[in-house]
Specification:
Rossmann fold, 6-stranded parallel beta sheet, about 35% helix, binds adenosine monophosphate
């Protein structure tokens, strides 16, 4: 793996693709700077070596130039976090950018305007990538959140730096965390998949059946499995067209010696609301008019045991409708179990899709081994895909 530490950046300009796609409020202030914080180790390494940084990122989904999505709004936040004054240029390519990059001195930070103000960025345009490539000596990709996109700045640009390209510290950490689960994880390896739909997780399930010893299937997804096995699930969410697929997954798991754990009981409600009437029910005997919105107490206890006996844990997706207080208990209990297992030495990785929102909401993010910064990129990695942004550096 080409990492930052393979290079000495003294008197070099590092052209760094970061993911500074941060949320802004109506006054264009950054409301969550996690992504800027996450890039700090990479920027500090370059600056401490005696190099300079040219930072390129996208922000939001602009349609042409949109003032509200200018990276100038986040320049101050970058200064606060990195502790170095920034120079901002109002276009990521062109004369102004070239002039600023040429005159950049060691220890300085140049922030380029939003890459997506040019449609060539998302198209992966070669000529645009080449123009960007002129702005630095060494290309560093530290944007895991966009590593699954073959955009100009994330993938195409790498070919202009055949010898001088590497992963940033954050991207290297993400790759290492995924490898620790999918390749080198200490056994028993447990994956917990929750969330809404089997269809959005099926490729992950099929990929990880070769890598894990135990698989917990929770959330609404579980009901497709329960129904496929002949259970009565009332009005719970189900994907009728995935029933055969669910049975096939169960068969494959048996062949591969993977133990699948599905909730045995559920918190059921008479409508999709926090104020609904609530009961506890066996998972396969839910009356008509009622729907399962969380895993029940017996399931929680069973999942706790499985988590505590695992040495490597991957968690993606909530066990219930965690956005509503009355249906958040199994997700919270699971988070606590994972924190406890982590304290006892297990490696725990949380990520993919919206998992991070749940983990942050309940304050587990600092107490697991690693929380991924990439939603879609993490899901695609778990599906076993080689991400184009990673391949472009590795090849
Ligand atoms: P995903 O994006 O696939 O990880 O799904 C996350 C969503 O699944 C969350 O918004 C949860 O509210 C929802 N979810 C989890 N369990 C259930 C359930 N039993 N019924 C309906 N929605 C659920």
């Amino acid at each position: 793996m080409n990492t930052l530490n393979d290079f000495n950046f003294k008197n070099k300009k590092a052209l760094i693709r970061v993911d500074f796609n941060v949320p802004l409020n109506e006054n264009f202030q950054v409301t969550d700077a996690t992504r800027i914080q996450a890039a700090k180790p990479t920027l500090i390494k370059v600056l401490e070596d005696g190099g300079s940084c040219v930072l390129m990122s996208h922000l939001g989904r602009p349609n042409g130039i949109e003032e509200g999505l200018s990276l100038k709004h986040i320049a101050d936040k970058i200064e606060d976090i990195i502790g170095v004054e920034t120079i901002f240029v109002s276009d990521c390519v062109g004369e102004e950018a070239c002039f600023a990059a040429e005159n950049l001195k060691p220890g300085e930070l140049l922030v380029l305007e939003n890459l997506r103000f040019h449609e060539e960025e998302k198209k992966g345009d070669l000529a645009f990538a080449e123009k960007l490539s002129k702005l630095g000596d060494i290309y560093v990709n530290d944007a895991f959140g966009t590593a699954h996109r073959a955009h100009a700045s994330t993938t195409v640009i790498a070919q202009f730096f055949p010898e001088n390209k590497c992963f940033g510290a954050l991207l290297a950490q993400e790759i290492e965390a995924i490898d620790k689960v999918l390749k080198t994880g200490e056994k028993p390896v447990l994956a917990i998949l929750g969330g809404a739909k089997v269809s959005s997780k099926i490729t992950i399930i099929e990929n990880i059946l070769d890598k894990v010893d135990h698989l917990i299937i929770g959330g609404a997804m579980a009901f497709t499995f329960v129904k496929a096995k002949g259970g009565a699930i009332g009005n719970s969410l189900v994907e009728e067209e995935k029933l055969d697929l669910a049975l096939d997954v169960l068969r494959q798991a048996e062949e591969k010696n993977v133990t699948i754990h599905i909730p045995v009981d559920a918190i059921i409600a008479d409508n999709f609301s926090n104020d609904a009437n609530i009961q506890i029910s066996d998972i396969n005997n839910i009356p008509e008019g009622w729907m399962g919105l969380d895993a029940g107490p017996k399931s929680r206890e069973h999942f706790h045991k499985i988590v505590m006996q695992s040495k490597t844990i991957l968690w993606n997706g909530p066990l219930g409708v965690f956005e509503m207080e009355n249906f958040a208990n199994a997700t919270i209990a699971l988070g606590n179990s994972i924190v406890e297992a982590t304290k006892k030495g297990a490696f725990s990785l949380v990520g993919g899709g919206d998992s991070v929102a749940a983990v942050k909401q309940f304050g587990f993010d600092k107490r697991v081994s690693y929380v991924s910064t990439g939603g879609g990129a993490m899901l695609e990695s778990l599906e076993g895909k080689t991400l184009p942004g990673i391949a472009a550096i590795a090849e």
